[in-house]
Amino acid sequence: MNARDIVAYIHNDMNKTYRDDDRYVCHGAILKDWQSFNSWLPAQIEEMNLTPLQLVYDDSFKADDDSYFHDLCFKEEWFFDYISMAENNEEEDAFFSINSFWTNNRAEANIRHLNAFVVDYDYYKLDEYKDLSASEMWEIIAPALPLQPSFVIRSGRGLYAIFCIKHAPYDCVPLYKQIYKRLVDSQKQFGADAKAALTTQVIRIPGSVNSRNGQKVELVWSYPHRNTLQDFAKVYLPYSLEEVKAYKKQRKNKTAGKISKKKRILPNQIIRFENDCKQLILTRNSKGVLSGYREQLIYALWERYQKIGIPEKQILKNIHYFNGLFSVPLTEHEVENRCQPARRYQYVSSRQTLAKKLAITPEEAEKMEYLISDKQLASRRQKRCRSKKKIMGRTKAQHERFLRRIEALKALQDGLKLKEIAKRLDINIKTLRADFMYITAHPMEFKKVLDSLNTVTFSVAESIKTIFQAEDTDEAVIRFYRC
User: Each residue of 234-243: pLDDT tens digit?
Assistant: First the structure.
């Protein structure tokens, strides 16, 4: 199969309409460098009266960041023609979108048809598999997949596994995203890239060339077929459709008449999150990790600032501060156009989701307070609980005070003065006075200790009164102990 056949099979519903007067048709996105005159189809050049000078001087052919490497969306015929053109000319770094859009803007809000899931295996990053060929790696991955893909393509350094699905409209996007997330998570032991799991995902065109290693993108294995979203849901989602409906019904009855309380982001959480971001940047700067997480981290900061209602001017100031901490900062234009959330979402990315997307290692997590997984958080809580575990009905700190007060009683029996006792126990006199006041107020707590001492000649209350009078003439203290 050539590139056009593969892409046509994935985008088989591009010309599908829902009404006789339906004005909307699907668009597919092509991402590549558009600066060269040879990057354009002759038919489009003729229709647009395009000249080489226009590409150089007309800003309408540039992206927002003034680069020529960006995506353009085309209708069915031109979209497939650009696919064939990329394969025939062996173009470098040419990509196409998996899903299709109803306008010429590649955005999640504009999706018209969901066509497939794509798992991007970056197995070359794993020491265990980095020396294997694409075919050898596929033989290892295949047995671990409950549902077989339609196509397996060598991306140059890794693998694409493309799972074609039957027609699914935009309304299925929430379900699609949940399945996609769990599908990729199930393959992370083989190097599946969690950041390459978007509804607007693009992959390399078969027959094009990966400029990073000069290898051609080629088909490794094919089994053209389609599954439904429900087929994937049964395998990868934890609950069946019937269980979800029953839970929603139960929850609706339970919460009827109650006012819901939305979870808020507290100020101390933002401070801890900012400290973790700073720590992560400095740690990775020292290790020479210069990219691969910058956009995600800036986006996470931005959405949280918006959620708690920080003014836009202050958000930009904070964002540029954190961007300046990177060894290789993003440009001002990249920060404000690539990293800004599309809108103010009702919810923000969870702590655990961010820890996964930022690929925080256990060593990095040890220095974090907020950006840690649920497992690490539970481990820390257990550790804190163990440190607070009671000894003989007392916490660790209470038990230490109890032992110190026993030593104070023994020193008191030896006839030492207040200053001498404080020196022996290495505490100040104010603390020692508080200990003796506690002993006189709670004599039954020290009953066993007092019984072991020679209480015939040793009266605790009288001895404490005596040393207090000897050390301090404060009438208030004396009156307290006379009571």
Answer: 999 888 778 8
